[in-house]
């Protein structure tokens, strides 16, 4: 860079240089009020630091920044009750998987000498709905079967255990959801009844739950928005491995949000949102049981919630 020739150029240059340097970042951070709550201060300070250092690192140009802003806006504009593009963008960048891991580590307390290992958590994803119907054990969560379902019908059962004592937990709520074989969750598909393929169950006095569902299928995450654009830019496919979402709630324990995966699915080793963990991979067993094609026993172990 050639030397500035007059005072105004010198001023412009020094503004430019200070904007590119840490003192500028510090000035932005230091503008924060002393009243800002502690956690917000920590998060915003780090966010500003990382955003600034990201922009410096890639030499972010104004048109690129605007593209990013417009992408965020478009993600918001296309989101609604049935579509959560913000979560999808997070997911393809691996951010929800990372945050999920941080959360499980932070929120669960594993007592020393615990009887069992707690079941690992997995990301919530964009398709959870509160208030799924509560069914009696053994009920089929599929409200409307379609042709071909008979080959996928599954009897699923298991026990819920306390990690510390190894004893079963009665009256725990097990909430499950999965796609239809067409790869769509109920809220994405006008052909499915409300809350199809979703249901809650309560464990009995022995900590036992049971239900019928479908052996899940792999499917592409919606890729007609920003998340899909990013996948295409990075040369990645949109497929998620076949999975069943499970959430287990019981007062006194850390709520467990997880997913189980079919070992036979090739995408189980190549998930577009980086969520699969070895211990969450299961074997759907062909069965002679009446009315179903598969059976699956899946026991779940809950850790106590950490006192924060
Ligand atoms: C899904 O079905 C899902 O579970 C996640 C995590 C992301 C996209 C689609
Ligand atoms: Fe899912």
The unreliable regions are none
The CATH H-level superfamily of the largest domain is Aromatic compound dioxygenase
What profile does the largest beta sheet have? 5 strands, mixed
Query: What is the count of distinct domains?
Result: 2
Count of alpha and pi helical runs: 7
The oligomeric state of the chains shown is: single chain
H and E order: HHHHHHEEEEEEHEEEEEEEE
Helix % is 25-40%
GO molecular function: catechol 1,2-dioxygenase activity; ferric iron binding
Cofactor: Fe(3+)
Protein name: Similar to Catechol 1,2-dioxygenase acc. no. P86029
Family: Belongs to the intradiol ring-cleavage dioxygenase family.
Entry summary:
This protein is of the alpha+beta class and 308 residues long. It has 7 helices and 14 strands. A hairpin with a 7-residue loop joins strand 11 (285-286) and strand 12 (294-297).
Could you walk me through the main structural features you see in this protein, from its secondary elements to its overall organization?
The model has no long low-confidence stretch (mean pLDDT about 95). β11 (about 285) and β12 form a beta hairpin. The strands form four sheets. Strands 2, 5, 11, 12 and 13 form a five-stranded mixed beta sheet that branches. A five-stranded mixed beta sheet has the order 4-3-8-9-10, with no helix packed on it. The chain has a two-stranded antiparallel ribbon with strand order 1-14. The chain is built from seven helices and 14 strands. α2 (about 20-30) packs antiparallel against α3 (about 40-60) and α5 (about 85-90) packs parallel to α7. The chain has helices at about 5-20, 20-30, 40-60, 60-75, 85-90, 95-105, 225-235; strands spanning about 110, 155-160, 175, 200, 210-215, 220, 240, 245-250, 255-260, 280, 285, 295, 300, 305. About 30% of the residues lie in helices and about 20% in strands. The protein has two domains: about 1-60, no CATH class; about 85-300, Sandwich (Protocatechuate 3,4-Dioxygenase, subunit A). With about 300 residues, it is of the alpha+beta class. The longest helix has 21 residues, at about 40-60. The site of 3-methylcatechol has 10 residues, from α5. It comes from Pyronema omphalodes (strain CBS 100304). Keywords: Dioxygenase, Iron, Metal-binding, Oxidoreductase. One of its GO terms (molecular function) is ferric iron binding.
């Amino acid at each position: 860079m050639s030397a500035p020739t007059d005072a105004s150029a010198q001023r412009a240059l020094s503004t430019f240089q200070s904007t590119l340097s840490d003192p500028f970042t510090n000035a932005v951070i230091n503008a924060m009020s002393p009243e800002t709550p502690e956690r917000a201060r920590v998060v915003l300070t780090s966010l500003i630091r990382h955003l600034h250092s990201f922009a410096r690192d890639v030499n972010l140009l104004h048109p690129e920044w605007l593209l990013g802003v417009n992408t965020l806006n478009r993600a918001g504009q296309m989101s609604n009750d049935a579509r959560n593009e913000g979560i999808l963008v997070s997911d393809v960048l691996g951010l929800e998987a990372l945050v999920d891991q941080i959360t499980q580590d932070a929120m669960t307390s594993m007592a020393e000498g615990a009887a069992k290992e707690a079941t690992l958590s997995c990301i919530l994803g964009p398709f959870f709905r509160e208030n799924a119907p509560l069914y009696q054990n053994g009920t089929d969560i599929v409200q409307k079967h379609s042709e071909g379902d008979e080959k996928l019908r599954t009897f699923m059962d298991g026990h819920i255990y306390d990690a510390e004592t190894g004893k079963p937990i009665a009256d725990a709520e097990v909430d499950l959801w999965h796609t239809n074989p067409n790869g769509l969750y109920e809220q994405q598909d006008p052909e499915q009844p409300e809350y199809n393929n979703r249901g809650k169950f309560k464990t009995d006095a022995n900590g036992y739950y049971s239900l019928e569902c479908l052996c899940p299928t792999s499917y592409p995450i919606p890729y007609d928005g920003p998340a899909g654009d990013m996948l295409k830019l990075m040369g990645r496919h949109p497929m998620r491995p076949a999975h069943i979402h499970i959430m287990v709630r019981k007062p006194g324990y850390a709520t467990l949000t997880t997913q189980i995966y079919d070992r036979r699915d090739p995408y189980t080793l190549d998930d577009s949102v980086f969520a699969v963990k070895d211990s969450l991979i299961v074997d759907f067993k062909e069965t002679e049981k009446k009315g179903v094609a598969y059976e699956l026993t899946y026991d779940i172990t809950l850790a106590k919630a950490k006192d924060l």
